[in-house]
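Take a look at my tokenised protein here and describe the backbone shape.
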Amino acid sequence: MNKQSSNKVKNCVGKENFERMNYLFQIGQVAFNFSPVASAYYNNLMMNIAKRSVLRIDPHIKRKICRRCRIPLVPGQSCKISISRKDNMIYHRCSKCFYLKKYPMNKNHQLHTDKEEFIVEVLDYGKEENESKDVKK
């Protein structure tokens, strides 16, 4: 391999695992309407892949899944949301296992992944030049 070809494409460590986790998360969200048990199974698979390959899941995705029973947290269907003005907290209670999760209710609060100083590099995996040439033929 020469240096030019290695510099053109940046490889993401665990790209295939991220793609599989993304697919399982999407299937888990869609499957919840038909079978909550299957949805929990897909979300559990996603979490196990992340643990096995030592990859971090985005906090926005973690907030959409119950930590205990792994079903998707859909307000009004699988979780109850309550607001405590005294504590300035938002409470999510799972309807299946009754797990309670608290989130701060501060309008200036940002997750660490949303802050620009924490973003090191953004990789774009659009169509590569070779793939686009094959499509044009």
Summary: The longest strand covers residues 79-84. The chain has five helices and three strands.
